[in-house]
Request: fold
Amino acid sequence: MSKLGNLGARLHRGEVSYDFIGKRKIWYGVSILITITAIVGLVVRGLNMGIDFQGGAVFTTPAKMSTSVSQAEGYAHEASGHEAVVQKLGNGSLRIQIAGIDTGKADDIKETLAKDLKIDPESLAADLVGPSWGEQIANKAWEGLAIFMVLVVIYLAIAFEWRMAVAALVALIHDITITVGIYALVGFEVTPGTVIGLLTILGYSLYDTVVVFDSLKEQTKDITKQTRFTYSDIANQSINGTLVRSINTTVVALLPVAGLLFIGGGFLGAGTLNDISLSLFVGLAAGAYSSIFIATPLVADLKEREPAMKALRKRVLAKRAQAAAGENSGEQGSTGDTYDAAPAVVGPRDQPVARNRGRGRPSGKRR
Reply:
C-alpha cells in the first residue's frame, strides 16, 4: 500500500506519467469490441425480463419444504407450460415465479402445483402481476433513464462545457450497453432492482468522470498563454493526477458488491441479490474504465479540433522541434564535427581578479 501511495504522489506531481491520451485509439478499439459483443448478446439472446416487466404469478410455499428446486421447476413447467424460476428462501420455503402467463389461469395453476407439491392449496400464497402493470413499470424505467441522461447533459454543459457533456454522455451509454449486454449473456433476470443498480452505477460513473473533468478544467484555464503543453498533454496529466484516486474508490466500492454477488448470490444461494449486485459490479468496473479511457480522451479529441487548440499545438510542436534541433546541434558541436561556435554562457560568469589590484593606491580613508 505504501508503494501505491508513493506512486499516486509521483503521478500527482507529474514525476511519473502514463500516456493514456496518446494510446486512445487502442482504448477506443477495445471499447468498440466489448460494446459490439454486448450488442450481439443482447440481440441474439435477449433479456430475461422479470415478472414485474412481463406480468405473471409468484407462488410461495410454506416453510421447510422437502421438494428440491429442480423438482419444483418441473412441476411449475408442467402446470403452466412456461419456464419457471424457483428460489429456495432462508426459511426453507420455495418461491416459484412464472412470467408471461394469463393471470386468469392462476387459480388452475395453483391447484395443480399444490397437488404436485403435496400441500394444501390454501397454504400456497399467490401474487399476481398483470401485463399492463409490467409494461407500465418498464415504461417508467425508460422514462427515468432518459430524464437522468438529459439532466446530466444540461448540468455538465453549464458547469463545464458542451464537449465534456457529450463525452460524459458517450461514456454513460457505453456503461449501460456493456452492463445490459452482460445481463443478456449470463441470462440473469432483469427486475426493478436491476434498474436501481443501473441508475446507481450511472451516478458513480458520472462522479468519477467529473473528478477528472474538474482537474482538467482547472489546469486549462490559461492554456493558450503558454507553449509548453498541448490540450492533450494537460488532459493526460489530469488523468494521471487522479488515477490512483479512481482506482482506490473503485476497488473500495467493488469489494462489498463482490461480496453480494459471489458470496451472497453464489455460495449462500441468495438469488434475489443477483439482479442488483451484477449490475453494480459490472457497471462500477465499466464506469471506472470509461472515465479514464473514454470520456477524457474523447474530450481531448473534440478540443483539439478548435482553431485555438490547433494553433497552440503548432506552437508547442514548433518549440519542441526547435529545442530538439538545438540539443542535436549542441551534441554535434561538442564532438567537433560540425558545430564550431563558442557555447553560450549559462549563469553568472566569474570575472578574473588581478593579483596586484589595489596595491599602491590610496584607500580613500582619512587618517
